[in-house]
Amino acid sequence: MNRFFTTLICTAFIAGAPARAAAQAPETRSPWREGQPRACLKNGDALLGWFKDRAKNLGSDGKLRVLIIGDSLSDGGTWAQYFRRGLQTAYGDGGPGNIWSTQPGTAPGQGSAPEWLFSSADFTRYKGPKGVWRDGWSWRGDIWPYLGLNGGFLATDSPEAEYFVEAKGSRFTVMHSSGTFTTFDGQPIENRAAGFTATFDGQSKVVPPAAPGEALDIGLTHFEVSDGPHRLQIHSVNGGTLYFHGVLVEKAAPGIVVYNLSRGGYAPHNFIWRQPGWEKILTEMKPDLTIIFLSKPESGASAGPSDPRPNVESEMLVARITRALPQTRFLFVINWAPRDGISEFDAQAVKSRVEWYESHRYPYLNLEEGLDAATMNKMGWFSDGIHVTAAGGQGIGEAVTKLFLP
What is the band of 301 on the pLDDT scale with cuts at 50, 70, 90? Predict the structure, then answer.
């Protein structure tokens, strides 16, 4: 009798093992719906054909440049970095693009490349052992009116302040604010952009401080050198506050450069109203393709009550970019659905965007249609209600990249 029950229990245990193993196994289904992401790219055949041909037949300077304008779904270590790496692996590495001045280490040897998939082989950046720097993003008096690349920058008025960037490239452009302007942090503050010295491999260029009443603008300091590792030092601050935005770096080698002007929380109006000198930044980057991936619905509120069109802010953004970059091509991206499902308001916003894209025959990638949020959640692709993990960023970035490969 005991032997019988023992056999019965063992048999049941063994029979149930596959079911338990299956229940405990990680989700392996793809979150991409059938035929995706190709099927959710609309009006995109001509764009893909142009891109692939252009990537195989680079222009006179040997570059194809891509610019991503987005929010937290595209900044830092997200799908965008896997997209960049995939394109550069296939068509050549044209350089790291824009190196922000934020989040440095504190001393030589402690520099970092904070964005995913960049390494010290691409660049390192760090503050020197002298001076006090503050993060412009977190200081109200500094962030208005959102100067520079993404509203993120470092500021200092310490004469002894130093900052170092080491990178491989041949074309380096230091970006800083110029002019005098008023900001507000409880009371009006008159800001005067400081002068400073930029020393590049021992060669120094002195940038003078702003003149009284000089208009707010972006200042650009260029260094053209042979391809290789180089060292840039920003130091000797004088005559005001230095608003340092970062460095644009491209290599002499042919290939792809992906610039990324994404910033958490940004919506179209941040790029319409709050970026003095932005046209100068765009023309310095001169992207052949501009990808707009702003996930927050546009209400039109900041465009004025006299113009109630739901996509008026996107129209204004496209107009501003086109004035600076008449030859750039556009690709719009609609974000994936949130982990807990899309709201009625957001669903209507998606519908409105699709109607606008179709009316202009704009190429657009509808990830809300292409990705199944429930499967993304089961696979652990969500880090919260909408942002993705490293695995999610890799899965999305690599799948999107394949659309652009030969």
Answer: low
Give the C-alpha separation, 285 to 276, whole Å. 16
Q: Kindly give the residue spans of alpha helices, DSSP state H, lying in 194-335.
A: 268-272, 278-285, 312-324
| Alpha helices in 140-248, H assignment, sequence order | 140-143
Burial 238-277 (b: 16+ CB within 10 A, else e): eebbbbbbbbbbbbbebbbbbbbbbbbebbbbbbbebbbb
DSSP annotation string for 91-149: H-B---EEEESSS-BSSTT--B--STT--TTTEEEEE-SSS--EEGGG-HHHHTT--TT
For 191, the token pair is 């800001």
d(C-alpha 123, C-alpha 75), whole Å: 18
Confirm if 150 and 261 have CB atoms less than 8 A apart: yes
Which domains can be identified in the chain, with CATH numbers?
31-94+255-406 (3.40.50.1110), 95-252 (2.60.120.260)
**Residue 258 · residue 84 · CB < 8 Å:** yes
Q: Rounded CA gap, 180 and 59, in Å?
A: 39
Count CA within 13 A, CB hemisphere, residue 160: 4
In which band, very low, low, confident or very high, does the pLDDT at 304 lie, cut at 50, 70 and 90? low
Which phi and psi angles does 47 have, rounded to 5°?
-65, -45
How far apart are alpha carbons 62 and 94 in whole angstroms?
8
How confident is residue 4, by pLDDT bands cut at 50, 70 and 90? very low
In sequence order, the 6+-apart residues with CB closer than 8 A to the CB of 305 are none
pLDDT of residue 105: 56
Task: Count CB neighbours of 44 within 10 A.
Answer: 17
For 73, 263, 286, the CA distances from 266, given in Å and listed in that order, are: 10, 6, 22
Q: What is the DSSP letter of 214?
A: P
Q: Write out pLDDT tens, residues 25-69.
A: 444 589 999 999 999 999 999 999 999 999 999 978 899 999 999
Measured between alpha carbons, how far is 135 from 133 in angstroms, rounded to an integer? 7
382 near 339, Cβ under 8 Å? yes
CA quadruple 91, 95, 98, 99: dihedral sign:
positive
